[in-house]
Amino acid sequence: MEVTFLGTGTSQGIPVIGSKHPVCLSEDERDKRLRTSVLIEWNDCSYVIDCGPDFRQQMLRCGCEKIDGILFTHEHSDHVLGLDDIRPFFFKQGNISIYAHKRVLKALKKRFDYIFTTENRYPGAPSVNIHKLKNKPFKLGDVKVLPVKGLHFKLKVFGFRFNDFCYTTDIKSMKQKEKDKLKGVKILVVNALRIEPHYSHFNLEEALRFIEEIQPERAYLTHISHLLGFHAEVEAQLPENVFLAYDNLKITI
Ligand SMILES: [Zn+2]
To answer: Any idea where the Metallo-beta-lactamase domain is (predicted)?
Structure first.
């Protein structure tokens, strides 16, 4: 299984529009972060988790020619706004499968009514096959995927465990029962927004404490704000098995 980090930035991305913050002005490519998303590939399968406003650019950048589906963690704009850009895939492949909790599907239907409507459809509108997720395992190809529920302030969000790999983002807290699902995971992705605490995201300290509890072999931090600091400086201070993810990073599991 191969995972490509398509984006590792928080909701505004880095650089932030108009910002003169040193991290936003950094020339290190790793300090340029599109909105958070990953591409997961194995055998002939390729799935994307979340589909934010940078989806088009991310698909072009990684040279992706086919997707088998999109899994949604939650309905916030930085995770869903690129949905219209599934059109090139839809024209080639037909309906695109989307996987989400029913609350998230409801939000998508409201925002992208023309994609979901059955009447008076605009001919260029893409179509989707809807897969409603509960907090129960489901199958993608030959792989069992386990949703892992966390809280993003008060909003329930899903992480997804694919065998030895688990991707979570936009988490501030997780019940023990859900943490138990992460036992034995080899590679864990966790959000770490910044140094200062935040009401709906782990800060760096909370993310490291979470990783310490789960004890994966390796962990990667994502959904990063410019306020976390320069990639090179932050990564140098992390525990041996923890890394800052960056855009275009590929890992093999
Ligand atoms: Zn987010």
So the answer is: 34-223
Question: 185 C-alpha to center of ligand 1: Å?
Answer: 23
Q: 91 CB contacts (<8 Å, ≥6 apart)?
A: none
Q: In the chain, what are the domain boundaries?
A: 2-252
Assess contact for 189 and 219: CB atoms under 8 A.
yes
Distance 93 CA to ligand 1 centre (A): 28
Centroid of ligand 1 to alpha carbon of 120 (angstroms): 33
Antiparallel, parallel or unpaired: β 45-49 and 143-152? unpaired
Q: What is the pLDDT of residue 68?
A: 98
The reported pLDDT for the residue numbered 28 is: 98
Ligand 1 is a single-atom ion; what residues have CB below 5 A from it? 78, 170
95 contacts: CB under 8 Å, gap ≥ 6: 127, 128, 129
Instruction: Give the contacts of 155 (CB within 8 A, at least 6 positions apart).
Output: 74, 76, 200
Dist. CA 203 → ligand 1 center (Å): 13
The stretches in the chain having pLDDT less than 70 are none
Question: Tell me: domain 2-252, CATH 3.60.15.10, correct?
Answer: yes
- Its pTM stands at 0.97
